[in-house]
Write a structure and sequence with these properties.
The complex is a heterotrimer. By secondary structure, chain A is α/β, with parallel strands linked by helices. In chain A, strand 4, helix 1 and strand 5 form a beta-alpha-beta unit. The longest helix of chain A is centred in the middle third of the chain and has 12 residues. Chain B is α+β, with helices and mostly antiparallel strands. In chain B, a hairpin with a 2-residue loop joins strand 4 and strand 5. In chain B, strands 3-2-1-4-5 form a 5-stranded antiparallel beta sheet. Chain C is an alpha+beta fold. Chain C is globular and about 60 Å long. Classes of the chains: A alpha/beta, B alpha+beta, C alpha+beta. At the B-C interface, helix 2 of B face helix 1 and helix 14 of C.
């Protein structure tokens, strides 16, 4: 596994907690919603991230967002596109400003779609995707878009739905 | 039942069959015959190797019969794959 | 028609380069077939029985002569000299090499065309009334809205991995020629009590193995909200559409399982919450887009054309062609000509490269440089002066494209079926050819009158058999082709799904069975004015069933 962030592979300060693992006293941990809810006490010296399955509605964790620094959305299969809509809702409707991380079956050709929906970190397992990125292949194949998205882009000044990348 | 191994060639999608010396050939008549499904497993293994080598896509076993020296695929689908569309097409259709 | 600006051209060029890279990675083995399949499908590339198939987008079925000539060129250079127009107003080529597809797409880009999202689990080509902009009964031309949707849905980051494909159709007239009630979303341009135009919205229609007619979930949507409302529907579907079973993944199943009222409430809530953040369509932008589609400045022509009338009086073949294939244009002195791609005994929807070039020449000389593709798999010359009709007719004869059978029993819609398609369970084309030959192009077919036959080669229903007046579904029964018949379907504003007549017929018997149905109709009809569908709706299945199954 390698963590891609800001176009580079970086060390990952976050750790996924196992189902029954106790919360640590400090550090960065990612846990699932049930685990998060069941914790009697949450040490304050810890940065929390929640891992969402694609079937879990964002509305159900809306009240938790102020306590969260990261949301990880699971992609069990790259063809399961629910996570894109979850990300859009988190960023647009709930103005979630923490790290939005895509986990699971994350492949090279999906990276730009993911980024445009608000993801800014990617846990990548696919060896070829990792190799392509390390070799300098740019996953942002498109510079022009017909819809507003998250990420660095600007209105091109013609039709209101058009955008141009400024990265 | 007699079997051959078929697939589509990766590069152009054309129907091919596993033939002698592990070549992938375009004619059903040139395909290597396996006596039954169990023996055909060896051919399918070569198919999987050819998938890994980026030569072909979706290898599968095709049941065939040989009658009066002619070979044909048993199912209509496989027969159409072997012979091409059953109708005249393109300029041959001669409007 | 719409013309690309620099942005559109650059976008398509980027997309071609991206796909070229993806194909190169596939050929090198850096993408597995499983990983590549969704990527190639998003660019219209299938792997079928004999070869790859490339489906090229013809947005809302409108083509320029130059574009049609490019399709002819592609047919010659990269394929076997012909193409096949589909029931969704696209064209597909059945023999391209994967390695050539990037070059084909680059050639298409030079004439402002592409294959983006002609397949895959994404937003497909938006279809429209083939007479849009020319029809006399239209409130407004739907194509500006189709074009806005076409742009907005291209490589949409949120909606590129939907549970299943998603099809939108738009019509501008009360007479529905775009089959909007059997689409995932159907928009109909309507006028409200204040005299404003907007959209009625239908959701959850579709054919396939579980055919359903759409539910109207909104009577009037302001134009400014078209993208916001579409986005709300898409998001509900993306999040809640079933992903556990491919055959239950279309939005029609979600609407059916949750109920139209519940879906309406969810969509309205989603729409209300994000309306302000969504892209709204200012009137200036709508006007700018509409200007592209303004009916071309047709030259003044006399309402009555003496050349036309004289030919009509003396040439019965021309008169029949006019009766069958020509309808009124909104501009006096002009007509809309449908070019039938259903020659007697031919393959429905197929055209050769020479014919494409010929139609392109005709469109350039006589129809404002524009060709339409109808979902019935015919072509349309939408703006022909009556004065020019005799010449156009003569040239269509020379091209082998003057069959006067639009709407008749031989104007058969058929998918490619088992002759080409990897999903098919039976052949469609030979059945269409034999039915066509049985009824021919003479007095008998004209006496039968309007009768739509639709043939699908499998349960996925690309031939739209459920909405054929007579529908034929080809299945496989213990290794043999078997054909089921449905009666009474219709895709228009009185949309109905056909009723199953009974057990299927073998390939040998199916044409006789169709003839039996037609003969029964001729016996039961109240008069020549009562067409097949009207007669069926009046008398029901019983007499047909009896004729098919109970006679010795």
């Amino acid at each position: 596994m390698a963590l891609l962030k800001g176009g580079r592979f970086v060390p990952d300060p976050w750790r996924h907690l196992h189902d029954l693992e106790a919360l640590p006293a400090e550090g960065h941990v990612i846990l699932d919603v049930e685990h998060w809810r069941s914790a009697a006490q949450r040490p304050t010296n810890v940065a929390y991230g929640l891992s969402l399955a694609p079937s879990q509605p964002v509305a159900a964790i809306a009240a938790d967002l102020p306590f969260l620094s990261l949301i990880a959305i699971q992609f069990p299969k790259f063809t399961d596109g629910r996570g894109y809509s979850l990300a859009r809702q988190l960023r647009q409707r709930y103005h979630f400003a923490g790290e939005l991380r895509a986990t699971g079956d994350i492949l090279f050709d999906q990276l730009q779609f993911l980024a445009r929906c608000g993801f800014d970190a990617f846990e990548i397992n696919d060896p070829i995707t990792i190799r392509l990125l390390k070799e300098g292949h740019n996953p942002d194949a498109m510079q022009l878009f017909y819809q507003p998205g998250d990420g660095p882009e600007k209105d091109v000044g013609t039709s209101p739905w058009r955008r141009r990348s400024i990265s | 039942m007699l079997q051959v191994v078929s697939a589509n060639r990766l590069r152009d999608g054309i129907v091919v069959y596993l033939g002698p010396r592990d070549h992938w050939v375009e004619r059903l008549e040139a395909a290597t015959i396996f006596a039954n499904e169990a023996e055909c497993e060896a051919g399918l293994e070569k198919g999987r190797a050819a998938v890994a080598a980026n030569l072909i896509v979706d290898p599968f076993a095709v049941a065939v019969v040989e009658e009066a020296g002619a070979r044909r695929a048993v199912s209509l689908r496989d027969a159409i794959r072997a012979l091409g569309p059953s109708i005249a097409y393109g300029t041959a259709e001669r409007r | 028609m719409y013309r690309y600006d620099e942005f559109d051209a650059a976008f398509v060029a980027e997309r071609v380069a991206q796909f070229r890279d993806q194909v190169a990675r596939r050929l090198k083995g850096e993408l597995t077939e499983e990983q590549f399949r969704p990527l190639r499908l998003m660019n219209g590339v299938y792997l079928q029985l004999h070869a790859y198939m490339l489906r090229i987008s013809i947005p809302y079925g409108t083509l320029s002569s130059r574009q049609l000539r490019m399709l002819a060129h592609i047919a010659r250079r990269y394929d076997k000299g012909y193409g096949h127009f589909t029931t969704r107003q696209n064209i597909q080529f059945h023999w391209p090499a994967l390695a050539d597809v990037p070059d084909i797409l680059a050639e298409l880009a030079t004439v402002e065309m592409h294959a983006i999202q002609t397949s895959g689990n994404d937003l497909r080509n938006v279809t429209a009334d083939q007479f849009a902009g020319a029809a006399a009964d239209e409130i407004e031309d739907p194509r500006p809205y189709c074009e806005i949707l076409r742009q907005w849905l291209a490589l949409h980051p949120e909606f590129s991995f939907l549970p299943r494909k998603f099809k939108i159709a738009v019509t501008g007239a009360a007479r529905d020629r775009a089959a909007i009630q059997v689409h995932d979303i159907g928009y109909q341009i309507v006028r409200n009590a204040q005299g404003e135009t907007g959209f009625a919205c239908y959701v959850g229609g579709g054919l396939g193995r579980t055919p359903m007619i759409a539910h109207k979930i909104r009577d009037f949507l302001p134009k400014a909200d078209l993208l916001a409302y579409t986005s709300a529907i898409m998001r509900i579907y993306n999040l809640e559409g079933r992903r556990d079973n491919k055959f239950k993944a279309r939005i029609k199943i979600l609407v059916h399982e949750k109920g139209a009222a519940a879906i309406r409430a969810e969509v309205e809530e989603e729409f209300a919450r994000d309306r302000d953040r969504a892209v709204r369509l200012p009137q200036t932008e709508i006007d700018r887009m509409a200007a592209y589609f303004a009916v071309p400045g047709l030259p003044e022509r006399p309402v009555r054309s003496s050349a036309f009338e004289a030919r009509r009086a003396k040439d019965p073949n021309f008169a029949r062609f006019v009766d069958q294939n020509v309808i009124a244009h909104r501009m006096p002195g002009h007509a809309i000509v449908t070019v039938s791609l259903k020659p007697i005994g031919g393959t429905p929807g197929d055209v050769t490269a020479e014919q494409m070039d010929g139609v392109a020449d005709l469109a350039e000389a006589y129809s404002q440089d524009e060709v339409r593709v109808a979902h019935e798999q015919n072509l349309v010359l939408a703006h022909v002066a009556l004065d020019d009709l005799p010449t156009v007719f003569d040239r269509l004869i020379a091209l082998g494209l003057a069959t006067a059978n639009v709407g008749l029993v031989t104007d058969i819609i058929a998918c490619p079926g088992l002759d080409y398609c990897g999903l098919a369970t039976a052949r469609s084309i030979p059945i269409a050819q034999r039915i066509s030959e049985r009824f021919g192009n003479g007095a008998r077919a004209r006496d039968i009158g309007e009768l739509k036959i639709n043939i699908s080669g499998c349960i996925n229903a690309c031939g739209h058999h459920h909405v054929g007046h007579i529908g034929i579904l080809g299945l496989e029964k213990s290794g043999v082709e078997s054909y089921q018949i449905t009666l009474g379907g219709s895709a228009d504003e009185n949309c109905a799904l056909g009723d199953l007549a009974g057990p299927g017929f073998s390939s040998d018997k199916i044409v006789d069975a169709i003839e039996t149905i037609v003969e029964t109709y001729l016996k039961v009809r109240a008069g020549k004015d009562e067409d097949f569908l009207a007669a069926y709706r009046r008398v029901g299945m019983a007499p047909f069933k009896e004729a098919l199954y109970e006679r010795v």
